[in-house]
Design goal:
single chain; five-stranded mixed barrel; alpha/beta; 151 residues; OB fold (Dihydrolipoamide Acetyltransferase, E2P); 15% helix; 3 helices
Length: 151
């Protein structure tokens, strides 16, 4: 987006009372189903074609926030199924395939309590192995700049 276009949209949003994210088209997040992140054939961890196509784009997922062992960690986990225990404490059991790490926006002030109620999360999809420097947790799929969409 050109600088002039951005400034025009931002100015119009401020004057007109429209949220800047809406003026910039952020409401057009792609829905991403946590239960279908990986290819159905072979039982491996190859991402499904629709997930690869959504890389680096704004997506929205609906799932259950997992309990967290480490308070203050920079990320949380969301899964397509409720998890009753901290995923880091599962020992040799693996996480459900429909589990994604998400890094919330620092300034949004939202809390992400674990529980039995699903939440919708909006963020930018990142793919590829990455180690969190603070915790050492390795992820292959993440949401960055995550927020709870406004209704």
């Amino acid at each position: 987006m050109e600088r002039r276009t951005f400034i025009s949209l931002a100015g119009a949003a401020l004057v007109g009372g429209t949220p800047l994210s809406k003026a910039l088209g952020a409401e057009d997040a792609l829905p991403l189903d946590l239960a279908s992140l990986y290819q159905a054939d072979g039982g491996g961890l190859d991402f499904a074609p629709h997930v690869l196509a959504a890389a680096s784009r704004l997506v929205v997922v609906t799932g259950y926030v997992a309990p967290h062992l480490q308070p203050g960690a920079p990320f949380h986990l969301v899964s397509h199924v409720p998890l009753s225990a901290c995923p880091h404490c599962l020992g040799n059991r693996t996480l459900p395939k429909g589990t994604v790490a998400f890094y919330p926006l620092k300034e949004n002030g939202a809390s992400y309590p674990p529980g039995a109620d699903p939440v919708a999360l909006k963020g930018y999809l990142e793919l590829g192995a990455k180690v969190d420097p603070q915790t050492g947790f390795v992820t292959t799929i993440r949401l960055r700049g995550t927020s709870l969409p406004t209704v």
